[in-house]
Amino acid sequence: MAASAALYLNPAAPVEQRVDDLLSRMTLEEKIGQMNQCVGVEHFRNNMGALTEEDLKTNTANAFYPGMMPDDLLTWTEEGKIGSFLHVLTLEEANRLQQHAMKSRLGIPLIFGIDAIHGNANAPDNTVYPTNIGLACTFDTVLARRIAAETAREMRAMNMHWTFNPNVEVARDPRWGRCGETFGEDPWLVALMGRMQVQGYQGDFGPENVLACIKHFVGGSQPVNGTNGAPCDVSERTLRELFFPPFREGVKAGAGSLMTSHNEVNGYPAHTNSWLMTDVMRGEWDFAGFIVSDWDDIEHVHDLHHTAESDKEAFRQAIMAGMDMHMHGPEWNEAVLELVQEGAVPESRIDESVRRILEAKFRLGLFENPYADEARSMEIRLCDAHRATALDAARRSIVLLKNDGVLPLQRGKHRRILVTGINADDENILGDWSASQRPENVVTLLEGLREADPDCEFVFVDQGWDPRNMDPAAVDRAVAAAADADLIICAAGEYMMRHRWTERTCGEDTDRSDIALVGLQSELIRRLAATGRPLVTVLINGRPLGVEQEAELSNALIEAWEPGMTGGTALAEIIYGDVNPSGRLAITVPRSVGQVQMVYNHKPSAYFHPVAVTPSTPLYPFGYGLGYTTFSISNLRVLTPEVAAGEPARVEVDVTNTGERAGRETVQLYLRDEYSSATRPVKELCGFSLVDLEPGECKTVSFTVSPEAMSILDARHNPVIEPGRFIIMAGNSSADESLLKSSFNVK
Ligand code: GLC
Q1: Rounded mean pLDDT of 5-13?
Q2: What is the CA 211 to chain-centroid distance, rounded?
Q3: Of the candidates 372, 446, 665, 690, which lies 20 to 30 Å from 72 by C-alpha distance?
Q4: For the domain bounded by 29-55+63-369, which CATH number is listed?
């Protein structure tokens, strides 16, 4: 039958039938092609000259294919050998590649994937929101969904169809460079944020929706030595209690894809781990989407983990364990064709993967809308509504950690303010997973301050962007300039911009053996403080930083994380009090790397013997954050003193604004199963509520404690709710001294 009348091209036909019809027409080579992803032509061209073949072995962000030319990818696309591209950074290239795909024998469109982690930030001319750690500090899951939905709109306006987000890993180690890409250390908050982002991205799979990708499955956020891709060696109990829940929630939300993690999990690489990909994902959770490898990680099963003696054997193991799509490159096609021809991989297994991939393409409407409209693209990308959301998110993601009263500043009070530090006037405010954006679209801290208070003279002493190579003379200049300033604002932190891949100190593949400030930053802060001028220190960073001394020396300390393109405006509004900061830490800030692992939801025996010499408490605890007003949380009431197992409990608490100005409190509820058959954390977040209050206003907050929050895993890892007393705690951080306590019983 002529292709034009073919059932699979009929948008009115059920997706299932379109998949069956198309699959029946495909050759084995075309099927294998759908399972292969390659880097874009321009990415290839740019890296041909920049990288050596040796570099390719460890670089996880840039590549080319030795022995090929960039335009060979166009031919491969027309021959149906490539089903997806990543690192295509312009609409023009995406549409051009798609034209080649539509010339293929069956006209199967490409699906373009991209790391749109906080907006489609990794490509130019898109709205850049705060990164996930900052978004988590808003505790606003509705905002998370809105940002995902807006990101999806901007992606489709650039002909991108699939984001490699939400990262739903549970951060447990600040040495790891990707904490900023996660929603923090609490599995329940991570799960909620991840679920809402999947909903935001995928919506009803309309023309302004994209496929989500929950990643990385599993355990890469607790690497044995803090480095990305290092082994995760934890018990099955820890996997199921801590790392699985956000993925299970993402599957329940209907995530269309999942990405496996670089690391081995208890001796078996995630990429060839049939227990994870098939038994758990498919068997326990009914995951219906497709599984994509991470960058060259199937090849690493051979050349790094050494559990396959060749790439071809690694491909066989991965496919048979449940892998559906290969990221990335041309070695895949021939090797997998041989595997099928040799009978090592049944064609029926290939069909399973191709079905999942084709279903996503049909559901996204790619056969009907393979291109994006170049004329309309910039009507959507960077539109005012999205910029406003980015600013709203930046304002609420910022956490005020210390304030001796120096903040908020009063306009007119200071005639000259010194601004310095590596992050005072740099695009690094965009954060990890960001391409450079047009300067007119990025507001740095210095620019934000000058806009906020035009009558004040802001003296800027540049410390450069590179913490490793700061100039002592620039430090001297800042100290000298402080003598003539009324107040100092120093923007410190880390460097995350990916176009300076090897100069970064935080971000993907940029892990550290320390969490102190890099370079002369601490000396700068020490000497600035010694001038006696009030000092406001701002941090722009992805991982928590052990800034105990710097905090001590500063009159105020603001944790801005990676606030995105409106970060300078949001920071200035907070510094001047136009905005009352409301961020609360979604991750513990240790005093030093020696305290790691330091998390709030630790087991009871974790500090039975506190360390000698130094404190065993964090610098700032999970859930903590200050503002310009004060709140009192009082009168915790348990409405259900006794519940049957499987019934929810209900509690209420009052929160009052006891200060002089309106503000938002994030009332947090924690739970502890007092006695249980297996050890349980001393507390676990089981509820939170964002409460906006006028001065003097009091509201009652009601919480429902779900049966899931009360359940634990028995010896066979089956969820059970054991009878007994449950301690319930309410407060404005996880610190014991800030929590009201009560209890209820489960019969
Ligand atoms: C990287 C990251 C992964 C990302 C992928 C594509 O290795 O681990 O999160 O989605 O490559 O950029």
Answers
A1: 95
A2: 16
A3: 372
A4: 3.20.20.300
Q: Is the CB of 114 within 6 Å of ligand 1?
A: no
- How many A from CA of 117 to the centre of ligand 1? 11
C-alpha 15/C-alpha 26 separation (Å) is 16
The amino acid that residue 44 corresponds to is: F
CB 676 within 8 A of CB 724: yes
Average pLDDT over residues 681-696: 98
d(CA 491, CA 424): 5
Q: Which helix (H) or strand (E) holds 258?
A: strand 257-260
Residue-wise pLDDT tens digits, 511-541: 999 999 999 999 999 999 999 999 999 999 9
Q: Is the CB of 60 under 6 A from ligand 1?
A: yes
Ligand 1 centre to CA of 4 (Å) is 37
Q: If we measure between CA atoms, which residue out of 135, 108, 94 comes closest to residue 34?
A: 108
Query: Hey, what CATH topology would domain 382-607 get?
Result: Rossmann fold (3.40.50)
pLDDT in tens, 473-490: 999 999 999 999 999 999
Interval 21-57: pLDDT, tens: 999 999 999 999 999 999 999 999 999 989 999 999 9
Ligand 1 pocket, residue 294 CB under 6 Å: yes
Report the C-alpha gap between 329 and 2 in whole angstroms. Answer: 32
Rounded-to-integer distance, Cα 617 and Cα 615, Å:
5
Ligand 1 center from residue 57 Cα (angstroms): 15
- The terminus-to-terminus CA distance of the chain in angstroms comes to 67
Of ligand 1's listed atoms, the one at least distance from the Cα of 297 is: 7
Catalytic residue IDs: 294
The strand ranges marked E within 442-571 are 457-461, 487-493, 535-540, 556-559
Q: How is the chain split into domains, by residue range?
A: 29-55+63-369, 382-607, 631-746
CA distances from 4 to 83, 95, 632 (A): 21, 22, 68
The rounded Å distance from CA 155 to ligand 1 centre is 17
Residue 217 to residue 321: CA distance in whole angstroms: 14
Residue 164 CA, ligand 1 centroid: distance in Å: 8
User: Whose Cα sits closest to atom 11 in ligand 1?
Assistant: 295
Q: Indicate whether residue 8 lines ligand 1 (CB < 6 A).
A: no
User: What is the secondary structure of 364-432 as a DSSP string?
Assistant: TTTTT--S--TTTHHHHTT-HHHHHHHHHHHHHH-EEEEESS--S--TTT-SEEEEESTTSSSGGGG-S
Q: Does residue 399's CB lie within 6 angstroms of at least one atom of ligand 1?
A: no
Structure tokens at 397: 């993601």
Interval 374-412: pLDDT, tens: 999 999 999 999 999 999 999 999 999 999 999 999 999
- Atom index in ligand 1 nearest the CA of residue 60 equals 7
Query: Dihedral angle at the C-alpha atoms of 123, 127, 128, 134, nearest 10 degrees?
Result: -140
3-state secondary structure 210-237: CECEEEEECCCCCCCCCCCCCCECCCHH
- Taking only the tens place, the pLDDT of each residue in 187-238 is 999 999 999 999 999 999 999 999 999 999 999 999 999 999 999 999 999 9
Q: Which atom of ligand 1 is nearest to the CA of 261?
A: 8
631-746 classified as CATH 1.10.287.70:
no
Ligand 1 neighbourhood includes 86 CB (under 6 angstroms): yes
Is any atom of ligand 1 closer than 6 Å to the C-beta of 295? Answer: yes
Closest ligand 1 atom to the C-alpha of 228? 8
